[in-house]
């Protein structure tokens, strides 16, 4: 996939996503907000990998493969910054976009861009990303994100959680809360019968003491 942020960041979030998915649009907006804080201070790297329903359900999100290949073409011409700007344009609306118009707005050579698309230049690369997510990791829904720490432990964010919830997992991970405990926190949201009171109690018991201790250590 493509990455922005410090390669040596404490946290790396790998986002498996699809610009035609409305929940992905919501989560991508969340990550835009969080990257401004955690990416800019070097705590977070953000990696993007394509995951679409095009192999199993080509009738769902029919523009997904074309959008993915177009974003790769944009990156090959303009570099990583252009890739992320192109992606942001795709996520800006749930309506189909004229990808050549986006490329032109970003200052790309549209002849090269359209030639890249017509020649299916990045079809194999997009398929490799999808196969990694779908067949190897067996991910079935989008958005699906994996947050990897420096010690190679990880936790998964399955769905479009609110900005505050995702930020809390970052704070917990950076403070040293074990990833298995962070995963437990996220899983509680999807368990039937779990109340908001129970979730808040878990945060107060497991997260807050560690986060406060970490903050005191850095003062």
Annotation keywords:
single chain; 219 residues; alpha+beta; five-stranded mixed beta sheet; elongated
Q: Topology of this structure?
A:
Layout: E1 2-4, E2 11-17, H1 22-39, E3 44-50, H2 64-78, H3 80-91, H4 99-105, H5 110-118, H6 123-136, E4 144-149, E5 154-158, H7 163-175, H8 179-188, H9 196-218
Parallel strand pairs: 2-3
Antiparallel strand pairs: 1-3, 2-4, 4-5
Summarize the structure.
With 219 residues, the protein is an alpha+beta fold. It contains 9 helices and 5 strands; from the N terminus they run E-E-H-E-H-H-H-H-H-E-E-H-H-H.
Give a verbal description of the structure.
With 219 residues, this protein is an alpha+beta fold. Helices cover 55% and strands 13% of the residues. The protein is built from 9 helices and 5 strands, in the order ββαβαααααββααα. Strands 1-3-2-4-5 form a 5-stranded mixed β-sheet. The chain is elongated and about 55 Å long.
Q: What separation lies between the terminal Cα atoms?
A: 37 Å
Strand order of the largest sheet: 1-3-2-4-5
**Total helical elements:** 9
Apparent shape: elongated
